[in-house]
Structure to design on (388 residues):
């Protein structure tokens, strides 16, 4: 009887256990179905569930970060624009004529970090970006303009770095006071961590900008050194005549490194189509600038100053020649009429050019002077003979 009861008992217990398991499984399935149904209904009726609330919080957090990032970018651009305006208004920077909008865009990209200037970019990337940003109408900037733009970037990055350090100090003070909730303290800790990372990034950027400036200077040393010395003269010439500062800098460098003789200078004026007024304007402008530099005792060294003074003397000599031949034109007319023929038109440029050839002759002689004078007078005599 006992064994039979024992087996029966075990069978009953097994049946009970199986029924219990089925009931539990059924409950779990019901719960899963209920949760799924609740989720479907919640989505349909826009009622947030616990998981949906978590997702929504994450989404809102990311959106807040984006908004904060945009605000920071706008603030940085405003700071860059203010610095660009102030930088260009400084007396020592005015002659460089740097584009204010290009400076603003360049500094903003450097501070924010973009695809064009990513974090960790090599020095050459900064050089390329400056040249690209400062190119106007297909003409690249002058080396001194690029060098001065590096000074602007250095100042802008350093200013931003100083502000980050000040913000770090402010957060440390807030943390030291301790009168904050745990959430607020955590936010301060996170913000401080972000500022430390930003400080490191800006420090690396500042170092790279310095390396880029040095690299560019070494590659364009002569142009940069001479350009900084004569930038004021280039600006003065560009102010009174057509052309960019970079063109006038090229002209002045050519003057300093390869001074022209009188004849070459006169022929260059002719090729440019310059008349007496234009030659006088350029000569007077350069002379006024050098006179100002003498009074201010600026940093143009004596050798360069001597060459530039010689250049103004050449311009004055050409002007005197033009005036001389125009002044003697009346005498020429009288002499022709006294000989009984109508005076042919007088080509001043032809006479000036031949006169300069005589002056430029290293070994003058009576025979050579006679040949040049005969060559100058022959066209006039031929025309006079034809008229007679």
């Amino acid at each position: 009887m006992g064994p039979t009861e024992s087996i029966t008992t075990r069978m009953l217990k097994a049946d009970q256990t199986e029924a219990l398991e089925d009931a539990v499984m059924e409950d779990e399935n019901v719960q899963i179905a209920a949760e799924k149904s609740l989720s479907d209904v919640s989505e349909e009726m826009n009622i947030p569930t616990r998981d949906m609330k978590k997702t929504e919080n994450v989404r809102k957090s990311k959106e807040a970060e984006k908004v904060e990032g945009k605000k920071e970018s706008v603030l940085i651009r405003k700071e860059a624009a203010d610095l660009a305006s102030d930088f260009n208004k400084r007396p020592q920077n005015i002659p460089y004529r740097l584009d204010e909008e290009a400076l603003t865009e360049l500094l903003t990209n450097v501070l924010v970090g973009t695809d064009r200037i990513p974090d960790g970019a090599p020095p050459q990337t900064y050089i390329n970006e400056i040249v690209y940003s400062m190119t106007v109408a297909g003409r690249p900037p002058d080396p001194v303009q690029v060098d001065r733009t590096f000074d602007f970037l250095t100042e802008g990055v350093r200013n931003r770095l100083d502000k980050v350090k000040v913000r770090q100090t402010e957060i440390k003070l807030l943390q030291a006071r301790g009168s904050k909730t745990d959430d607020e303290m955590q936010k301060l800790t996170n913000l401080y961590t972000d500022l430390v990372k930003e400080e490191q990034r800006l420090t690396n950027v500042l170092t790279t900008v310095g390396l880029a400036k040095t690299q560019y200077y070494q590659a364009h040393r002569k142009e940069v050194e001479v350009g900084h010395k004569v930038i004021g003269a280039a600006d003065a010439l560009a102010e009174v005549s057509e052309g960019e500062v970079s063109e006038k800098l090229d002209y002045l460098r050519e003057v300093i490194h390869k001074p022209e003789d009188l004849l070459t200078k006169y022929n260059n004026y002719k090729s440019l189509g310059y008349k007496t007024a234009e030659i006088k304007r350029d000569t007077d402008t350069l002379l006024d600038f050098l006179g100002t530099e003498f009074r201010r005792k600026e940093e143009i060294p004596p050798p360069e100053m001597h060459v530039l003074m010689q250049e103004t003397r050449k311009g004055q000599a050409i002007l005197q020649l033009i005036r001389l031949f125009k002044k003697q034109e009346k005498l020429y007319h009288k002499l022709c009429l006294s000989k009984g023929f109508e005076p042919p038109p007088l080509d001043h440029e032809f006479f000036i050019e031949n006169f300069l050839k005589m002056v430029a002759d290293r070994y003058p002689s009576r025979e050579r002077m006679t040949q040049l004078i005969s060559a100058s007078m022959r066209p006039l005599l031929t025309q006079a003979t034809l008229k007679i």
Observations:
- The chain has four domains: 2-39, 72-219, 223-326, 334-387.
- Confidence is low (pLDDT under 50) at residues 1-5, 57-67.
- The two ends are 168 Å apart (CA to CA).
